[in-house]
């Protein structure tokens, strides 16, 4: 039995490339932001709080943005 073609078109004739716009730098960076926030929230347990506080005592406010950002994302994702 010979296979029949629907509307006379075979796969190579139907296959085509869809042109899309090039992603901007911001869009490419935002693709990494979601997983990074989830990982940062996942590691904020009480033991890491103690480590963060000791790191803050040694380095001052240089690393405080990590703590603030991870807590903001925890509040956002857990509500």
The number of helical segments is 4
Shape descriptor:
elongated
Alpha-carbon distance between the two ends: 61 Å
User: Based on helices, strands and strand pairing, what is the structural class?
Assistant: mainly alpha
Q: What is the residue-mean pLDDT, rounded to a whole number? A: 73
- SSE order, as H and E? HHHH
How many runs of DSSP E, i.e. beta strands? Answer: 0
Determine the strand fraction and express it as a percent band.
under 5%
For the record, the count of structural domains works out to 1
Helix percentage: 55-70%
Spans of 5+ residues with little confidence (pLDDT < 50)? none
CA gyration radius, whole angstroms = 25 Å
Main beta-sheet annotation:
none
Key features of this structure:
79 residues, mainly alpha, 4 helices, elongated
In short:
By secondary structure, this protein is an all-alpha fold. Helix content is 63%, strand content 0%.
Describe this structure in words.
The chain has 79 residues and is mainly α. The protein has one domain (6-77). Helices cover 63% and strands 0% of the residues. It is built from 4 helices and no strands. It has helices spanning 11-14, 25-42, 46-59, 64-77. Helix 2 (25-42) crosses helix 4 (64-77). The radius of gyration is 25 Å and the shape is elongated.
């Amino acid at each position: 039995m010979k296979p029949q073609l629907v509307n006379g078109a075979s796969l190579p004739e139907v296959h085509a490339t869809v042109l899309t716009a090039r992603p901007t730098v911001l869009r490419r960076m935002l693709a990494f932001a979601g997983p990074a926030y989830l990982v940062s929230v996942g590691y904020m347990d009480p033991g890491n709080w103690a480590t963060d506080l000791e790191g803050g005592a040694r380095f001052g406010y240089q690393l405080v943005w990590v703590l603030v950002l991870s807590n903001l994302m925890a509040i956002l994702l857990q509500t």
